[in-house]
Give the backbone structure.
Amino acid sequence: MASPALIYDTEQWKALQVAKLKEKIEKMFKGGKIKSTENRSVLHVALRAPRDAVINSDGVNVVHEVWSVKDKIKEFSDTFRSGSWVGATGKPLTNVVSVGIGGSFLGPLFVHTALQTDPEAAECAKGQQLRFLANVDPVDVARSIKDLDPETTLVVVVSKTFTTAETMLNA
């Protein structure tokens, strides 16, 4: 078996050069439009960028926008976890149903699963529960909301575009 360090002498390396992978990676980190099927930037690198970074897409520094959303998510999360967010009847919200399909389901599920082993996150989540609704199957819908009190349950719709038929049907 060849060492990964020997990739430079292989056909794979030649294929990467032909595909201009290095240039595409550099373009991605600068906000360039490398997603050819949609003629747009792939901006997940902006999600990991420090607050003062600059990644421009269509003339806009998307890092600023990402951090603006991150700040709102933190405020939302802190308010929910503190119990100060109440429903229409005045009872504190303690349950969340996350409605999403595909990556809008898997991303939150992965984060939730990862944080279950974090002692601080587990402490913050005491007395609260998160459930996921990821398809339009009536049995799954019933399972997702079973035994939840509507007075203490928040339903969150997660979607990149809000055009996915299943997400909109569940919403």
